[in-house]
Amino acid sequence: MSSLWASSTGYSRRPQAYAAAGEVIDAVADRLRSSGSAYFFGSSPSSLDALLVGHLMYYRSSPAAAPVLADKVRLGGSSR
């Protein structure tokens, strides 16, 4: 099973995958902070905003989500 994980994701270990996902969450948080808007493309939500909300709410609320990602989302990413 571990070789299937490595071949399908490109990561040899789950911590590497979680670290990469954490970097994406940080980048999304940084982008929204720097834009001064609650949305990606102006003053109203787009389909990208809806997609991100769905993913981030899963990480934040689901007991099946990796705790390291749930904590990252709850804290709003971390500024670099």
Essential attributes:
80 residues; mainly alpha; 4 helices
Task: Describe the SSE topology.
Elements (H helix, E strand, L loop, with lengths): L1 H8 L4 H22 L11 H15 L5 H8 L6
Structure, explained:
With 80 residues, the chain is mainly α. The longest helix is centred in the N-terminal third of the chain and has 22 residues. The chain has one domain. 66% of the residues lie in helices and 0% in strands. 8% of the residues are buried.
Short description:
This protein has one domain. Helices cover 66% and strands 0% of the residues. It contains four helices and no strands.
Query: Unreliable stretches, pLDDT < 50, 5 or more residues?
Result: none
Form type: globular
What is the number of beta strands? Answer: 0
Specify the biggest β-sheet: none
Q: Beta-strand level of the residues, as a percent range?
A: under 5%
